Every structure is written in structure tokens, then in C-alpha cells.
């Protein structure tokens, strides 16, 4: 497998590196359940992708049907009920029968139609149409961005706490916890003298 054929592998490598360097909890970062919820992929497929096992190749029509069914089960209306075929049809500007055929895997939406359905369920573009690897790559990118932001937030706190003007890292970023321990030692040593 190559990163070109499986887009999630590159992001997975970057996220693994961050988890290792920042000494984050692997089980929490790579929990397949939240990743399943954000991708529409079964947790078993997410686990396969996270362990670099081949991700299943699915029929496109079946994939769209499964993800739309997943959205109906997990993204509910504000009143807690499932969106009906009629409500989906009205939003997508098609007939309820067409939505029924879509759910049975007999129809394929255009990208514009898929976008309207994705808007209804408030999921990112491509949720219905992305390959499993593309869907996992998007979810991992979001997780990587959140973890990087959290690390930067910790760095800002260090700067404020120790009244540093700037902190520069050369090469790969060091673990924030290690930097904080070092600064604590320096401050403690300064306060003793």
C-alpha cells in the first residue's frame, strides 16, 4: 500500500508522530468509535485503516446507500426523530421514491444532489461519496488539527506563565510536557538562589 492509493496513511503517520512526541494517549486519539461517527464507516473498517490493513472496496451505490442510512440513524432532526424520505427528498429537490431507490442502492446522486443531502445532515462535502480511505483521511486531518491546536495552546500558556517573549523549536517539535518540566526546573532553581 502506498500513501497515494490510501490517502489516510500520510495523515495517520503525522498523527502518530504527534501522539508519540506529545506523549498523548493512543487509545483516546485513535478510538475507532468517534472516527466511525465522523466518517460513516463501520468501526471495523476504521480499525483496519488505523492498523494499515487493506480497507474494503465497496460498490459505490452500496456505499452511498449505507452512509445515507447511517446519517438517518445518527443525525436526527431537532425533535429527535429520523428524517423521513420525504424530508430528504424536499431538501434535495427530488421525489421520495428517488430517495427510496438511493437507500436501496439502486441510484447514485450527482455531486450537487449529494451536497444538498450532506447539508441537510450537516456533514462535510464528500461524506456520501468519499472512498473509505478518503473519509478516514478527512477525519484524521480534523483530529490532527485539533491536537496541534491543543499543543499550541499549551505553548501559549507556557509563554504567559513564564513571561517568555518567544519560544522557537528547530526540527521536529519536542514534547510540550518535556519543555514544561525543563522550564519548571529552571524556575525552581532560580527561586532557590
- What integer is the average pLDDT? 86
CA radius of gyration: 22 Å
What share of residues is helical? 55-70%
- Helix and strand succession? HHHHHHHHHH
User: Stretches where pLDDT falls below 50 for ≥5 residues?
Assistant: none
End-to-end separation in angstroms reads 58 Å
Number of strands: 0
Structural class by sheet pairing and helices? mainly alpha
Strand content: under 5%
Report on the biggest sheet.
none
Broad shape = elongated
Q: How many helix segments?
A: 10
Write a brief caption for the model.
By secondary structure, the protein is an all-alpha fold.
3D architecture notes:
The protein is mainly alpha-helical and 193 residues long. 64% of the residues lie in helices and 0% in strands. The protein has ten helices and no strands. It has helices spanning 8-21, 26-29, 32-39, 43-50, 60-74, 85-92, 96-103, 111-121, 132-161, 176-192. Helix 3 packs across helix 4 and helix 6 (85-92) crosses helix 7. The longest helix is centred in the last third of the chain and has 30 residues, at 132-161. The termini are far apart. 23% of the residues are buried.
Chart the SSEs and their pairings:
Blueprint: H1 8-21, H2 26-29, H3 32-39, H4 43-50, H5 60-74, H6 85-92, H7 96-103, H8 111-121, H9 132-161, H10 176-192
Helix pairs in contact: 1-9, 3-4, 6-7
Q: Which terms summarize this structure?
A:
mainly alpha, 10 helices, 193 residues
Amino acid at each position: 500500500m502506498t500513501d497515494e492509493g490510501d490517502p489516510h496513511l500520510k495523515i495517520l503517520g503525522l498523527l502518530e508522530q504527534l501522539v508519540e512526541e506529545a506523549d498523548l494517549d493512543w487509545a483516546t486519539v485513535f478510538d475507532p468509535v468517534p472516527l466511525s461517527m465522523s466518517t460513516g464507516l463501520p468501526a471495523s473498517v476504521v480499525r483496519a485503516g488505523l492498523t494499515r490493513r487493506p480497507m474494503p472496496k465497496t460498490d459505490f451505490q452500496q456505499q452511498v446507500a449505507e452512509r445515507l442510512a447511517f446519517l438517518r440513524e445518527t443525525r436526527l432532526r431537532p425533535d429527535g426523530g429520523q428524517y423521513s424520505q420525504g424530508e430528504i427528498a424536499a431538501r434535495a429537490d427530488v421525489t421520495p421514491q428517488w430517495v427510496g431507490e438511493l437507500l436501496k442502492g439502486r441510484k447514485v446522486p450527482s455531486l450537487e444532489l449529494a451536497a444538498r443531502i450532506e447539508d441537510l445532515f450537516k456533514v462535510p462535502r464528500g461524506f456520501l461519496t468519499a472512498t473509505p480511505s478518503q473519509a478516514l483521511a478527512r477525519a484524521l486531518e480534523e483530529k490532527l488539527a485539533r491536537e496541534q491546536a491543543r499543543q499550541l495552546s499549551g505553548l501559549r500558556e507556557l509563554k504567559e506563565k513564564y513571561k517568555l517573549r518567544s519560544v522557537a523549536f528547530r526540527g521536529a517539535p519536542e514534547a510540550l510536557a518535556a519543555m514544561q518540566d525543563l522550564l519548571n526546573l529552571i524556575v525552581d532553581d532560580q527561586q532557590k538562589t
